[in-house]
Amino acid sequence: MQQHNSNMLHKVTVDPLPCHIKPDQKKFKNMYMYNILNYTPGSVALTTSDNSLSICDFQSACTTPSSRIVAHTKTINDLCLSNDFSDMNGGGSEHPIVFTASSDRTIKAWDFRCPLIQGTDATPPAPAMQFTVSNEVQSVSLGCGGFLIAASAGTDICFYDSRKAASVASGSPNSNSSMVAKLQDCHTDMITKLKFCGGNGKTGNNKILASAGEDGLINLIDTSISDSESNVVSVLNIECPIRDFDFFGDNNEGIYVMSSIETLSCWHYPSAQRLCTYNDIREQFKVDYLVDCFMNEDRLQLCTGGFDGTGRILNVMPTECEYYSTLQNHPANPNAIVPPRPVPVSLGVGMGQGATPTPIGHHDIIRSVCLLNSQASTKYLITGGEDSIMVLWDINKQQTQSQTQKTHSSHSTMNSNKGARG
Q: Which of 217, 165, 163 is CA-nearest to residue 188?
């Protein structure tokens, strides 16, 4: 990590660690990295554009996924984990069940401890559970202790009970037999994202389901109430199509929202109050797109990117976004002079002996970001891109900035009492 001078600001550059991953070229060549999600401490689950689901362990010295399956016949649009990392069949909490949602109109649950999951030349990989939905599934989420599965189907939300699902491995694939409810026409346009509050091991009321659509609305529903007229907690009007969102803050009462026009806003969902809106991040910070937000200790941070693969991390503050660090890429030339890269403490995924030099960092669009859940004291950030690689970054090796670039919110009422900064 080095500090570079700029006419605009003093940038703090974070260099990629040696555990920059270029997975097996035969399996991952020209594949986009889509979704990355913490799996077990030190490992992640990820989906790629060849409809595959993989598990990558950053605590081993292997540069290829420890497990990889072709999970669907069409694009995997979303994935989530069984709630609180628990096995719904009582098998413990060390290895969660991974749920995937696809354009092939199915939701599948994958247990990577099961030997049938890999399949054979004659049989496809066998999921632990499978649900057939009436439309392409853009999103899936688990709530109510991991037993209630919510899936988007166009403008509808379908609910399934995982306890009633038949095992695919037993020869009795599930279709709609475990559907317990269906909310029709929840939105006037396609639902793009579903999230239970408190899902994936987070705190919060995991009976509250948030649905976001291209109609610019986020509906928050209390799934413990069956009456459709009284189960609506609040409605947030973002006023533009929504690409992604998630909960954050104290008791997960905050929601950050990423729009399809590259803007960011934050809300307090119980009161339906808009906390802040940032419409000009690209112009202020000279970036091309917004990737996603994540919590780094008590800070909400935003990852942005350029078409050349360079990333920038911003702190999302109550009244402004401020520059935090740069995810810098470097050329593939092994003789090129590049800043020294920090060495990981206990994570050591390397390129291996005699590996062909590849570009350090991303050299194409960054598609996903995830703060790695590990037992190491150092915080590591994982990014995946359209260049078929994942990169591990030590984002806390940051030097003191003498200047800070900021962009101010066009609307801000964020304060600590509203769960704004976690």
A: 217
